[in-house]
Structures are given as C-alpha cells and as structure tokens.
Amino acid sequence: MTSPPVTFYTTAELAREAGVTRRTVMHYAELGLLTPDQVTASGRALYGPYALRLLRDVMDLRALGVPLDEVRDMVTLRRATHTLDGTYRRDWTRADISLSDERLRTIHARLRLLQNAYARQAEGLARFDRWLSKRFTGGDVEPLEVEALGDGEE
Asked: What is the mean pLDDT of the chain?
C-alpha cells in the first residue's frame, strides 16, 4: 500500500489557509520558526500539509507569550518526530533531534507551565459557566463558534 502524494502549499496558499498574511508566513520563515519543506528551482518555497498545523501552533504559542527561541525549539522537535503530512514517526531516534537536553528540559518546563495555567483557566471558566447557567440561562446554552466570538482585531 503506497501513501497518497503529498500536496504542497505555496507561501500565499499556506497564509490563506491559516488566515494570516503572506508576509506573516515569510516573517516566521525568516525567523526560522517555519521552514519550507521544499524549494523549487526558481526559489519558490513550498510547505507540506503539516506546516499548516505548525504555523497555527506558532501563532498560538506566540499569543500565549512563549519566547521566540522556545517556539523555534518546539517546531524543531515537532518536525523531527513527524512526517510532512503530520503523522507521528514511530522510528525517530534521539539523533534526529538537534536540540540539547538542556533545551528539551526548557521546552518541557514551558509546556508544564502552560498546562498548569490552562488547567487553572479551565477550572475558572467551568465555575463561571455554572454560575451563569444558574443565574441567567436556566439551562443549556450552545457554545458560540470561534469565528462568532471574534477577537476585536482585523
């Protein structure tokens, strides 16, 4: 059984899919946060399907305040352990990861910090939801779609 061919995104296509500008993708590439999976003979950058997930992760991590060097390390780690289409590579070895043990410990510490903050926020949101449900709605309320919430920025 052969794998289906990988479809690559141009910079503009990747930006469109992620809902960011082409310049944002180019900026992240310049910073080493997002590297092309292929470059054509004419120099055009092409990104595999997993790059879309990585780009969204970069944006989320930056929004959470993760420093650029740690975001870069997280992307490096993810690329070393996943294929172009995002499938987890069960055959990866420590030699595939170009990060030192110290950098990996830093990533791990940051992830623990984020997970703890997320757990606290989830608990607080659940309490607030229960309070609102009891006081105002008297029942179940369907959650809004993410796009409907908006973030006030365009």
From this structure: 88
